[in-house]
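Quick one:
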Amino acid sequence: MSVSQKSWGSETLWGDLQRLSLDARTSLAGLPKWEKPFHIFWLLGPFILLIERSPADAWLSVLALAFAVRSLYQRDGAWLSRMWVRAAFIFWFVCLLSASLSIAPNYALGEAISWFRFPLFAMATVFWLGRDKRLIYAMILSTFLGMMLMSGILVAEVLLDGFKDGRLTWPYGDAVPGNYLAKATMPAFLVCVALAARCDKKFITLIAVAIISATLAVSIFAGERMNLILRIFSGGLAFLLNVKRMFNLIVMMLVLCFSVILVISISPDVYRLAVQFLQRIPLTTDSDYFNLYYGAWSIFTDNVFLGIGTANYRELCSQLTTELANFRCDNHPHNYYIQLLTETGALGFASGMFMIASIVITLVRASCANNQNIVAATAYIVPLGLFFPLQSTADFFGQWNNIFLWSAVALSMAAVNLRAEPGASQR
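Output:
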C-alpha cells in the first residue's frame, strides 16, 4: 500500500518516514533522466537556504529558468491560463511600467525584471517540480528537516557563542535566522501544528507538540519580533482550525507554557521583544514605524498613479522628503502595501493585491476540496500569514526576503496538486 493511502502516525513514526522516502525514490525513478537532477536539486533547497544568500538565490533562479526553458521547448503554455499566474504577470507588467517611467529607471528596471524570478519559481514548483504528490510530501519532509537543523544550529550558538545584542546570527553571520524559521519552513511548521491538533495517537501528538514548542522557543532566542509573531499567529490559526480533541489542546497549552517559562529563565532579555513591540506600534509620532510610514505615504500622495518606480524608495526617499518633519527614510518602508503604494502607485497596489488574493483564494479552494489532507488544509495560511497587511515587513522586492518567502509560497501552492481520493484516508 502506498504512502498516499495511509495517514501519518497510522503505524509508527519511523514506518511513515520510511514510506515517504520509498515513495519519493519511486517517483524520482520514473522521471526522464534529464529531469531527475532538477527534482533532486529542488528537494535539497531547504538545506541550500541554510548556506548563504548567493547559493540560495542560485538554487531558486536555476530552477525558475529551467522551467521557463522547458516550457518553451515543450511548447507548454497551459499553465498560463491559471488566474494566479495571470495576476502575477499583470503585477509584473505594472512594475516594469512604473520603473520605466520613473526618474531613476535603470536601477528600478533591473529590480523589476529580476524580481519576477520569485513568482516564476512558484510556477515551476506547481506546474513541474511538485506535480507528483509523493515529491510534495518529500519536500515537506525536507523542509521539516531544515527547520530542525536550523533550530539545532541556533541552540548551539546560544551554548557556544551566546547572544549578540539580544540576537542570534548563525549560520549566516547576520541577524536573519528567524526569517528562515518563520518564512522558509512555514509549510512544514503548519503541517506539524495540524498533526498535533488532529492526530489521535497520543505519542505522535506529544512529539509534534514538543517540536512546535522547541522551535518557537528557538524563534524567541533569535530575537526577531515580527518573525516570532508570524509563527505564533499562523501556527495558532492552524491549530484552532484543526484541533479535534481536548487532549491535544491541553497538551499544547501545557507544553507551550513550560517552554515560555524555560525561555524566560534562560534569556531574561526576552522582555525586550515585548517592550519594543509596544513602543513601535505606529499610532503616534513617538513610534519609529509611524515616522517611517508617514514619509512613505507622503511620497505616494505626490506620485499616486505609478509611484516613484519599483524598488526606488531607497534611492529617492531622502531627496523627495526634504520638506517633511517627523519622518525618517530607510532601505524600504517596512510594510509591503505601503511600499507598493510608494514605489508602484495605486495601479501597482491594486494589481499586487489582485496577485496575492488570487494565490490565497486558489489555496482556500484547494483546502475546501481536500480538507482531510493536512498539507492542503493548512496551505492557504502560508500566503495569508506572509502577506498579512498589519505587520512590519522586509523589502517586498529584496533578494533575501523573497528567497525565504517565495520558497514557502511555492511549496504551499503545490497543494493544488493534491487530490482527494474517494475511500482513502488522507494526510
